[in-house]
Amino acid sequence: MKTFHNEAGPGQIGKAVLMPGDPLRAKYIAETYLTDVFCYNRVRGMNGYTGYYKGKKLSVQGSGMGIPSMGIYAYELYHNYDVDTIIRVGTAGAIHRNVEVGDLVLAMGCCTNSNFPSQYHLPGTFAPIADFGLLEAAAAHARNSHTPFRAGNVYSSDVFYEDCQGEKGQWEKMGVLVQEMETLSLYCTAARAGRRALSMVTVGSSIHHDRALTNEEREQSLDSMIRCALELAAEAAEAAEEAGTADRILAPGYTA
Predict the structure, then answer these.
(1) How confident is the model at residue 220 (pLDDT cuts 50, 70, 90)?
(2) Which residues form the Nucleoside phosphorylase domain (predicted)?
(3) Looking at the whole model, is its pTM more than 0.85?
C-alpha cells in the first residue's frame, strides 16, 4: 500500500531492492542496468524504479542520508511492499589504515553512536549483522570479478561533522574498517522484520591521508560494486520466486 514516503502501487516493487543513498544514483542504476524500467516513486524526490536484470524483476530505491531516513524506507519496503532482500550500495570513509581508497567493503556487522536500537527495548546491546548468505555470495562475486574487497565491521554514525576531532579514529583500535551513515537502521530493521539485508560500500576517502576518488575513479569503483549487487539481487529475486511468500525465512541465520 502507498505510504507518506512511497507512492508505489501493489506489485510495483520487486522482491529484491538495491538502495543507494542518492536518488539520482538510483536513477542511474535503473537506466544503465535494468530493462523495461518505470519510476514508481517521486515523493520527496526520493526516486524509486523497477525493471528487469537478466530476466529478474528488481527495484532500486534511494534511501536518503542517515540512519533515520534509511530506517523509514527499509521499514516500508519490508512491511508495506513485502520486499525480501535489501542491498545497500553506498560510499564510506576509511577509518582503518589498511583500507584503501577504492576498496569495496562488505559490512559483516555494524557499530554505532546512534540510539536507533533503543526502540526495541532489549535488555542489552544489540549487534546488527548482515545476512550470511548474501555476504558469502557477495564475497564470491567480488573474487570472481577480481574486485578488491574487505569484509568486516563498519561504523554507522549520526554525525558527519564531529565536534571532537579524531573521535572516529578511535574505532580503528577495534578493527572497524569504515564510517558511513545508513547500515545500522537497515540491519536492525531487517532483523526485526525477519528479512535479509547486506550493506556494500565503496571507500571514497580516508582519515589517514588526503587522497579521494576522482569522479572517474568513483564511477568505475561504484559500477563494480553495483554489478556485484545486481547479481546478488537477481539471485535473491529468483530464490524468492521459488520459495514463495509462505516459505519466507522468519529467523535470520544461515543453514548450509
Answers:
(1) low
(2) 16-232
(3) yes
